Amino acid sequence: MLKKLFILVLIGIIVLLPGCNHYFDEGKIQRVGMLVETSIHDQSWGKKGYKGLLAIRDEFDVDVYFKEGVKTEQDVINAVDELVQKGVNLIFGHSSTYGKYFVDISESYPDVQFVYFNGGYYAENVTSLNFNANAMGYFSGMVAGRMTKTNHVGIVAAYEWQPEVEGFYEGVKYQNPDAEVHVDYVNDWNDEKNALDSYEKMYNEDVDVVYPAGDAFSAQMIKQASNDGIYAIGYVSDQSQIDEHAVLTSTVQHVDMLYELIAEKFNNGKLAGEILTFDLQDDVITLGKFSPEVPEEFQEKVEEDIENYKETGLLPNEQG
Question: Which residues partner with 213 through β-bridges?
Answer without folding.
Answer: 157
